[in-house]
Amino acid sequence: MTNSAEPASGAERDGRDAHARSDRGGKGEHTRAAGGRSGKGMHRRRFLGGMAGVGLGAVGAAGATFGLLTDAGGNKAGAATGTGTLPVPDLLEGTAADGTTTFTLEAKAGTGEVLDGVTSTTAGYNQSFLGPTMKWTSGDTVLLNITNSLTEETTVHFHGAHVPPKMDGGPQNAFAAGTTWSPTFTVLDEAKTLWYHPHALGTTAKQATHGLAGMIIVEDDSTASAALPSDYGVDDIPLVFQCLAVDSAGDIKYDQAGYLTSGLSFPVLVNGANVDDTTLTFSATRTRNRFRALNASPSDIITLQRSDGGKLTQIATDQGYLTEPTSVDTIRLVAGARAEFVMDVTEDVTLQVVITTGWIRGGSGTFDFLTVAAGGSDTPDDLPSSLSTIERYDTSGFTARTITLSNTGATMKINGQAGLTMSGMTMISTTLGAKEIWTITNASQLEHSFHLHDVPYQLVSINGSAPTGVQLGWYDTFEVVGGGSLKIAMEFTDFSDDTYMYMLHCHLLQHEDEGMMASLMVLDG
Predict the structure, then answer these.
(1) Which residues pair with 146 in a beta bridge?
(2) How many CB atoms sit inside 10 A of residue 233's CB?
(3) How confident is the model at residue 525 (pLDDT cuts 50, 70, 90)?
(4) What is the rounded distance in angstroms from the CA atom of residue 381 to the CA atom of residue 338?
């Protein structure tokens, strides 16, 4: 196969639509076309990406750098290129006192090798690239002291968390360089995989692509949680995926001008390690292993699969456990989405990631990114037959809304307005306790990843078809293909505010920064 990203032609868009329609019954056409189940997947060190999308606006000077970051003393990033062993992000220990667990984070600059042998300017939390994993426990009160050591304002959004809007880390929570933001709240979420990243107006793509991202694991005392692997770094393994755009000098690109620069590479990173030329190894010491996958890419789509064509057992979507363990061929994650799966490893298993271009240019190809080496001598119990109870909404009495995603050139819009400022974006107002059904209509031929803050949603229809299988789980981020539509249902619970708002937006970070974001105010009804 050719490792290049082709233009988003009508055929490719049809392929995306076909995948959306067919993935409920197995691999979609797109994944099969990507090749790669017969033996070792194709690695790539450097290749030119194609162009995709429509309606490009005027392009300014290419190659903007991350000049607003300071040099943090030349510290190396968490990226570990060519080591061969899967790096596992540190677990950030909280300090418990007076009924509150306190976590300390610092957004800071650094340097690291995203491409082998080439130094890049990066950013991270408490380190030079990416951030540590936090563990929250359902029902606990947490306090986060987050210091901004960048040279521009930032926010920290707790993606997928059900928290008050004042603590959500949206654009209204931006805090200046040299200051500390200290949100505190009770963890109401049940067991699930969340993540944290910046969310200030116009700078989300820049800051996140340079490394400001980390995972959050929420634990609870449910029967399902007790029966599943939970020993972090031993049998409960985070997989943070990033497909970035980097030039030969190591400059990480994040906007349209940068992505249109010639001579780019699109490296694939897993927990900060470049897997273009390396299949990482995780040496399992237990038979059953749980993997938490996060697509932290700015725009590209990832599909996970086994190289031998075997099944994965998916146990969770964005917003927690499925009703039962579900056997799947592939797991497809758009930008911002998460999933959990388990494998009983009695012989070595190699996992592959298929990268699909999500924006005007991006990565493409199939990669053997991880070999899980069998080493456990234990015999685990059968997986629970039931993980959770999900009561499907009867939406007959729900309030209906239509959310239209569109663009004029490179300006992205929701309901006809570009969300470049808080006052300029569309504002949706609802009330505490409201139950609503939204039709998300993609009036463009561009790929979008629809993310809703505050509450999880159920999928009601996907391009006119009823959801099945894992699509019957809870989500906060889901794909809306070009020309497609999505119906989702949700209930607004617990939190209201007449000043602070939640956000709804495309999680292709460039689209978000280009205006595809609206605000959501939940009022006390």
Answers:
(1) 105, 181
(2) 14
(3) confident
(4) 26
